[in-house]
Structures are given as C-alpha cells and as structure tokens.
C-alpha cells in the first residue's frame, strides 16, 4: 500500500501559509480548517517548514503575551520530513514514529502534492488489515 492510495481517498488539499506570516494567522488557519498542522512555503511555493499545534503550544508556554505576534518562521519546524506518492504506508508509519511527527507533506520534484497525517496512515493500515482478514476468512470457508 502506498501514500498515493491515501491521497486518492482523502484528497490533495493542503493548507499553506507564507513564512512571513504571523503566528496569529497560523492559529486562525488551523482553527478555520480544523487541522493540526499547516505547511509553510517560501519562494516559488517551496516547502520551507511545517507548523503544528505542538509548535504553537511550546511557544505560548514561553511567552503567552507575545507569542501570537511572532513571525511563523521563528516558530515553525524547519526540518520537514516528507514522502512521495510511491512511499509505502509502512515506511511512512515507521518514519513518523521514529521522528515523532504527526504530519508529513507529500513532495515530488519540489512540488507539494498533498499532506498525510498519522490518523490517515492508521486508518489505511486498519482498512488493509480488515481486507486481509476478510480474504483469509473467505479462503478458509471455501
């Protein structure tokens, strides 16, 4: 099973913000779209970072009064783990677990193709396991 299968079922909409924006803009975007992370883009819409709820909470803990005025670039995670559409779901799950990330942009040839979350990955693995179990039950019954 590949990342492409997840994107085909969930879609390829990715919410992005420019790195020059403010943290308040990111909070508003996360709330409006009910998402846990936003991809941060630079020149030519290249992926330069990712900003998650976790990143925001950590900065709010450091400076509650001034955090929302911070530039996104000061708060975002600059080391972005990405995958491609032909990355296996098992590989993505392993990388997300090892890197302790919950969101992974799908990037090919420098172009943002989508984003997947750990929830998307777990859902796909459950579906895959259920299909395998059904196939085994059918095989045993025949």
From TrEMBL:
Q: Which domain of life is it from?
A: Bacteria
Domain CBS: where? 8-70, 76-131
Q: What PROSITE patterns does the database record attribute to this sequence? A: CBS
Q: Which InterPro entries match?
A: CBS_dom, CBS_dom_sf, CBSX3_CBS_dom, Diverse_CBS-Domain
Keywords of the record, alphabetical order, are: CBS domain
Pfam families this protein is in?
CBS (PF00571)
**What protein is this chain from?**
Inosine-5-monophosphate dehydrogenase
Q: Which organism is it from?
A: Devosia geojensis
